Amino acid sequence: MTAAPSSDLVDRAFELMGTHIRILIGAPSSAAGETAEAAADQVEALLNDYNETMSRFRPESELSKLNADPRDEVPASAMLRSAVSAAIAAADQSGGLVDPTLLTELEEAGYREHWTSEDRLEIGDALTSGRPAPAPAEASPQSRWREIVVDDEAGVIRRPPGLRIDTGGTGKGHVADLAGELLSGFQTWAVDCGGDVRIGGSADTPREVQVVGPFGDGQIETVNVVDGAVATSGLNARIWRQDDGSVAHHLIDPLSGRPAFSGLIAATALAPTAIEAETLAKMALLQGPSAARNVLSRYGGITVAEDGTVDRIGQLHPAPRVKITIPSSMLQKGTR
Amino acid sequence: MENQNQTTKPTPRKPKTNRTIVPVFLASAAIFASVAGFLGVQVASGQDPMLGAKTTTAQKKNVIVRKVIKTRKIVTVVDAPAAGATSTGNGAVYASSGGGSSYSAPAQSYSAPAQSAPAPAPVQTATS
Known about the structure:
CATH architecture of chain A: Roll
Largest sheet of chain A: 8 strands, antiparallel
Number of helices of chain A: 9
Largest sheet of chain B: none
Shape of chain A: globular
Oligomer: heterodimer
């Protein structure tokens, strides 16, 4: 299969953070701007730094050191503070459903080491036996994410010692957004961190995002994005059978502390930023088909149920086009 | 008693004359005009006293000039066989096309930017 010609000058793909990464960059917005290759190098360096800082599987990572630190207050780099802040914001946005303090529960479910696809259970097998009846996940009243405080002025993170933080639920979306900040000087760009895709560019050119179904049935939808993000969360990629025969995966119900089976297999969300899209996708997936419609109604999204039903949610009918032009003189005054 | 009453009766006051009104009015008008003129000159020169004293060069604060651009995203899903079409909703610009959807395609036109150059390469989103 030959790739169709595209306007991207850089199309770089590699594996990192236990998933695939892809960086696409078009022409610079101005002739004086840096080259797409140089920008891609910067983005790749950022992603590597992020991985080294945030990996919970690396004892020497700053996050691992924070989780092991016996002090209440621990000095933290700007990147770690930013990532933890993003995780707290996602928990807040989701009402505690996307909880960064469920690392113990995740490990008890069997996710203790770097994920390898050799352990993956086929979703069809997973649904036949060894899993509980579908039920919506709920936030836990005992949730502890509110005990985490990020103090940017002091450059520290405060939390009770022993309260471990896991940014795995928000990290890919967060770093995709951070990478996008580096690419504002280009006409078109996209950063794909394991299916959490941030897209933008000064040319306002739509980029096609193919939504791939969880049952190995290929593309189920195509979404064109000019400036925004699309993220997919699902059970099928990281799902395994435990020693007792029960099926487990990496999305934990905060209330039960066990992997959530809500009746949905995958959820794709659109949003202005990748971390918002990732949070919305997880919220939809955790809460099940009925609540997912409300969760995804604002920006739009797609859900896939256990029986394979695909539900497309959001604005299905274009609204009238409204264009507001602000005189440049007002803009200049507004800058004073 | 009658005489006493007569003697204690206050004598009617002489009506005041208007001789002092004119100079007081003129003085007030002159003061008002001078103050208004002074303030007018100050305001015209950009030194509005209501905005505080003019900062000296040494006291001059840095002014951060910041242009805030808010981008509003509009999500629109379009069921159409041809991928890549862009429709506009109330703000921004998502469009979608795909198979097996349970909704009908909106029968209305939408604009796609005229592109002589190739489009950006597609990307995929899936569970990972």
